[in-house]
Amino acid sequence: MRMIDYKSTKILLFSLVVGLLLLLCGCVLEQDQIKPFTEQAQTVTDNLPTNINFFASVKEGNMIRFFFLLEDKLGRNVPADGHVKLKIFDDFNNLLYYEEFDVKSSEFVDYQFRITGQVFGKAYEWRVPISKIKKGFPSLGFGKAILTFETLDKKRLHAETTVEIPTYTEEELLQIAEENYNKSATLVNKKIRKGSFEVIVTKAGFFNPFEWGEKKQYFRVDMEIKNIGKESQYFSPSSMVILDGKGNQYESSFSGTLRTFSKIYPGVTKRGYVLFENVPQSLTSVRLVFELGYDSNFNPYLFEYDITLNKQND
């Protein structure tokens, strides 16, 4: 009996030890399960990007390659899931292209310096066909690309870079300026016959051509000049100005298509336009004044045209 009791006591003690060990293991396991979860949550927060530290574009044939790198709050390069928006603008802030899409951290690839081969981080890259980008009005053939990256916690990161864009030809730019002028110009159709000339002002308004990559503003007057005399005469108007009725006058520019010193033969009609600089776009009426030819007393003929302007859009 004592031997049995002794064995029973050993079994009982062993069972208690095993149970205690299992209980301790369970506590340790439970603590281990909780700790990694907390650390993981902290790690996820730390690894979220807080800045786009590099964004660039490169033309490759008929494509534009874009790429960007992200960094966390400690300045470490970090790939991340998120949502991308790309907008491309020209020099006059016209929207030429827009797209948006989701990205995965697994889609980021190693980028390296081309000369040394040194990897400088994981970047996301994609390509845009140039044919999908509208033509713009650049001064040097470049527009701007604006990138927005939205993180998983809804923070929006922004970056900007230059991008080569398709551009209008000089002929296309002139056509655009002509179309805009014809839409806003005032039809005048006022005729004055004096001396050897009949001068008709057909229309007038503000004209915005592109010169050397810049958008200019002129006041434009379209005219028809006909020699109604029996001999050839020089069309050579003098003192041609625009008066605004407020004590201001505006001189003609050297630009324009109407030659203001040319011989016109009898019955011949010349057409073209004259440009004036610095005329305020806020004016609602102006007067065109110039002298052309002389009467028998050698007094100059005065040509005057009152022009009421269409309201200009802002």
Descriptive report:
This protein has 314 residues and is of the alpha+beta class. The chain is 19% helix and 48% strand. The chain has helices at 2-47, 170-184, and strands spanning 51-60, 63-71, 82-89, 95-103, 109-112, 119-129, 142-150, 156-164, 186-194, 197-207, 210-211, 214-215, 218-227, 233-235, 238-243, 249-256, 262-264, 269-277, 285-294, 300-308. An eight-stranded antiparallel sheet has the order 9-10-13-18-16-15-19-20, with helices on one face. A hairpin with a 2-residue loop joins strand 1 and strand 2 (63-71). The protein starts with a helix and ends in a 6-residue tail after the last strand. The model is unreliable at 1-14 and 16-44 (pLDDT under 50).
User: How helical, in percent, are the residues?
Assistant: 10-25%
- Give the oligomeric state: single chain
| CATH fold descriptor of the largest domain | Immunoglobulin-like
Radius of gyration: 39 Å
Shape field: elongated
Q: Layout of helices and strands, plus pairs?
A:
Layout: H1 2-47, E1 51-60, E2 63-71, E3 82-89, E4 95-103, E5 109-112, E6 119-129, E7 142-150, E8 156-164, H2 170-184, E9 186-194, E10 197-207, E11 210-211, E12 214-215, E13 218-227, E14 233-235, E15 238-243, E16 249-256, E17 262-264, E18 269-277, E19 285-294, E20 300-308
Antiparallel strand pairs: 1-2, 2-6, 3-4, 3-7, 5-6, 7-8, 9-10, 10-13, 11-12, 13-18, 14-17, 15-16, 15-19, 16-18, 19-20
